[in-house]
Design brief:
By secondary structure, the protein is an alpha/beta fold. The protein folds into four domains: 119 residues, Response regulator (Rossmann fold, 3-Layer(aba) Sandwich); 163 residues, Rossmann fold; 80 residues, Helicase, Ruva Protein, domain 3 (Orthogonal Bundle); 46 residues, Orthogonal Bundle (Arc Repressor Mutant, subunit A), CATH 1.10.10.60. It contains 19 helices and 16 strands. Strands 2-1-3-4-5 form a five-stranded parallel sheet, sandwiched between helices. It has a five-stranded parallel sheet with strand order 7-10-13-6-14. A two-stranded antiparallel ribbon has the order 8-9. Helix 13 crosses helix 15 and helix 17 crosses helix 18.
């Protein structure tokens, strides 16, 4: 049972609202003006939530809401603004001051019941399941490759070994898995950490400008080349050059990149002056390069040169143990901003996040945390605050991740089967009998599938 304060000078409406809320099992307090309500609040314990009319004698509802937010202990009490005539100004003003909801009178019983349930669930004192976080990680403004799952521990180990060498590294993984973050971490952990880190997105630069971007050009090399310019290879001398989306590089440019990797020198466009470069190349792609080699769209000899140390970043759906710690990490990062309130995840939101497939991976998770934190009316994020993740207007084709759509059917089915099994095992803490039940198959069938997928020795 909660205590709800109703501030409204319309006696008939206020009494009707009091009756409805009491019928729903809650205790009510009443005030006919903002001044009376504020005096009451300063003398007594804070209510669990407030219904506040916009038009009041004396100070209007927005002024009362602003005053209420300045009283210790009342900053996070959920407030519903009520008005007979909603306008853009009073709606925006109410939400800017942190109102939980803005309703137009009259308000039905069912709407009040649903709203009260949402407000009370979002109260800062509402119980919430504990979530593991990266408490042992050293705080840093630099990109971090965070993860506690076995899959990410393997990535971290391989990255650490690669950092002790000067070999070329090829980072693969779906869009949003953190390939550039991994490249930054690799650079910082290597002997080249004191040198520059230069990133180039090969897919974002027009084909006819990519050679100049990478190798530089001399004065007059082409129309508009009014001065000599160093390329990205020269800029990265003594450090690391990160070639993102290398799978989108045109074939002609692939041949020139191969030559640079072999000879460790570049020749700026429009010159005959070779320049020696000491650069560690880290390349990344979300594409299936072996399949592109078979199709004739990527050079096999370049793949050999790039793929000296392979580093694959697993999709978020295959590292379920990382989802909640990452979500809490993103919320904590957002709360560090000036004037930002710290938001937490309710138990139902946690369950939803863990079972969502995350086609956009870590990038999508970070975006979802920021969006929900910015728009949620309460301090506790509930499942409803993440409703935007389930877009019912999307076509069936949109539901297929691009990484699967590009694969042969058998490979795509194997990837999907592996992901579903990994998730089921994670949700059941490795209990194979329970995982089989969730998947709708027999335990023996699960054992057979695990063996076929090379997962027989693992619970995750």
């Amino acid at each position: 049972m909660a205590t709800i304060l109703i501030i409204d000078d319309d006696d008939a409406f206020r009494e009707g609202l009091v009756e409805t809320i009491q019928d729903l099992g809650h205790t009510t307090l009443e005030a006919r003006s903002g001044e009376a309500a504020l005096e009451h609040l300063r003398e007594r314990c804070a209510p669990d939530c407030v219904f506040l009319d916009f038009r009041l004698p004396g100070a209007d509802g927005l002024a009362v809401l602003e005053s209420l937010r300045g009283i210790a202990g009342l900053q996070h009490v959920p407030v519903v603004m009520l008005t007979a005539h909603a306008t853009s100004d009073n709606t925006i003003g109410a939400m800017r001051l942190g109102a939980f909801e803005h309703l137009t009178k009259p308000v039905g019983r069912d709407e009040i019941a649903v709203l009260l349930a949402r407000m009370l669930a979002a109260h800062p004192d509402a119980p919430v399941a504990a979530t593991p976080a990266f408490a042992d990680e050293t705080p840093s403004r630099e990109p971090q490759l965070l993860g506690v799952s076995d899959a990410m521990r393997d990535v971290q180990k391989r990255l650490g070994r690669a950092a002790g060498t000067h070999s070329t590294v090829l980072i693969t993984g779906e869009t949003g898995t953190g390939k550039e973050v991994a490249a930054h971490v690799l650079h910082r952990a290597s002997a080249r950490a004191g040198g520059p880190f230069v990133a180039v997105n090969c897919a974002a630069i027009p084909d006819d400008l990519l050679e100049s971007e990478l190798f530089g050009h001399g004065k007059g090399a082409f129309t508009g080349a009014h001065a000599e310019r160093r390329g990205r290879f020269e800029e990265a001398h003594g450090g690391t050059l990160f070639l993102d989306e290398v799978g989108d590089m045109p074939l002609a440019m692939q041949a020139k990149l191969l030559r640079v990797l072999q000879e460790r020198q570049v020749t700026p466009l429009g010159t005959n002056r070779p320049v020696a470069v000491d650069v560690r190349v880290v390349a990344a792609t979300h594409r299936d390069l072996p399949a592109m080699v078979a199709a004739g769209t990527f050079r096999q000899d370049l793949l050999y040169r790039l793929n000296v140390i392979p580093l694959h970043l697993p999709p978020l759906r295959e590292r379920v143990a990382d989802i909640l710690p990452l979500a809490e990490h993103f919320l904590a990062t957002l709360a560090a901003s000036p004037d930002a309130a710290h938001k937490r995840l309710s138990a139902d939101a946690q369950r939803m996040l863990v079972t969502f497939c995350w086609p956009g991976n870590v990038r999508e998770l970070a975006n979802a945390m920021e969006r929900a934190s910015a728009l949620a009316p309460g301090a506790l994020l509930t499942r409803e605050d993440f409703a935007f993740l389930f877009n019912t207007t999307a076509s069936p084709n949109d539901a297929i991740p691009a990484s699967l759509a590009e694969l042969p059917l058998n490979d795509a089915l194997a990837q999907l089967e592996r992901a579903l099994i990994v998730r089921a095992l994670a949700l059941t803490d490795g209990n194979r009998a329970e995982a089989a039940r969730r998947l709708g198959i027999s335990r023996q069938s699960l054992y057979t599938r695990l063996a076929n997928l090379g997962m027989a020795g693992s619970d995750s």
